What we know:
Layout: H1 5-22, E1 49-50, E2 60-61, H2 67-85, E3 90-92, H3 105-117, E4 123-128, H4 135-155, E5 163-169, H5 180-186, E6 188-193
Parallel strand pairs: 4-5
Antiparallel strand pairs: 1-2, 3-6, 4-6
Helix pairs in contact: 3-4
Amino acid sequence: MKLSLSSKVFAMLLSAGLVAGCSSTGEPMEEGQAAGSDVEAINQEGGATVYDGADGDGGVSSTAMTDEERQAAQEEAEQSRQAALRDVTTFYFDFDTSEIKPEARDVLIAHARYLADNPREDVRLEGHADERGTKEYNLALGERRAKAVQRFLIVNGASRGQIETVSYGEEKPAVRGSSESAWAQNRRVELVFE
């Protein structure tokens, strides 16, 4: 395959144009400037301004937030976190014990604070056990579990008068079955707000 002279010249011009287009201008860059850009780095200590789309000085600056506003925002975030924790109302126990698990403590503290802040609220603690053991033993175990949660709530701010305990033992299983999975879901205390 023979290439004509004009084809060779065209290919050389195309290659030269490609190389020229990819080369830099050779101008030195200033500190904080991105390559090929006239934008400088953002001063991280000064905060940020968000443009609201209107003409003029319509930006909202994060540095304009007062200490009171920051405190109010933090309190609101904490209240939201506490409310989310209170969505959990069932607490599980290991086999043949009434010891509260460490992962349940933060949630129970959120419930105790809620009860302390709302003295007109009442809660019923329903203790349950799995089907293993006698009915009498499981009723007593459910009662011990409910009383353990009651003590924890009282120590963390709730009033004794706000809390009622009841044990159902093995009579109201959450899950039917005779497997470890079913038993684990039945060993519980449920908080029922009235």
